[in-house]
Amino acid sequence: MKAWIRHCCNLLMIPLPPTRLFFLRRMLLRLAGIEMHTSANFCGRAWIYGRGQLSIGANSWISPGGIIHTHPDAQIVIGARCDIGPGVEIHPGSHEIGTGERRAGAGTAAPVIVEDGCWIGARTLILGGVTIGTGSIVAAGSVVVSDVPPHTLVAGVPAKVKRSLSR
User: If we measure between CA atoms, which residue out of 132, 133, 134 comes closest to residue 145?
Assistant: First the structure.
């Protein structure tokens, strides 16, 4: 039931201005079962798929065009004071490697945690089983396939640590 409510809420948000009427978006997303702090902002042209748990913390910003695929077996947590750039995608689900007859084997899912104070650059892809540590930066266009240590800058495909950041 939750998936169709989310789909309807996504459709209702389409005509809204991309960076206005955040209170209305928060209301619709809460109706769809999303845990969202009253100071979090979810911009237009962003989309949430699936029936899984999604939590967005205080003063976090989800930019236009973001796509979040939730999964019932894997929670997604976006901490407080996070900035998620335009076109960022979060995918907690994947597949085991199957036989030659069908390589995408049994479905799998793993949680995605974005800890407090992170900045995720535009068009980043975050895959399941990843924790992005407190105060980290993920450069635009990166693909995050493994944990990001706190207070680091990562970049690339796959994302690799480029340098430590001051606290």
Answer: 132
Q: Under a CB-based contact definition with an 8 Å cutoff, are residues 144 and 132 in contact? A: yes
The predicted structure's pLDDT at residue 89: 98
Give the whole-angstrom CA distance, residue 86 versus residue 65.
Answer: 5
Q: Specify the pTM.
A: 0.94
Alpha-carbon separation of residue 58 from 90, 157, 159 (angstroms): 19, 30, 26
Tokens of 61: 């910003």
pLDDT in tens, 47-93: 999 999 999 999 999 999 999 999 999 999 999 999 999 999 999 99
- Smallest Cα–Cα separation from 63: which of 84, 91, 49? 84
pLDDT less than 70: residues of the chain: 1-2
- Active-site residues, by number, are 95
In terms of Cα–Cα distance, which of 43, 32, 39, 76 is closest to 60?
Answer: 39
Both structure tokens of 111 = 């949680």
Which amino acid appears at position 12 of this protein? Answer: L
Q: Largest Cα–Cα distance in the chain?
A: 50
- Coil, helix or strand at residue 14: coil
Q: Give, as one character, the DSSP assignment of residue 148.
A: B
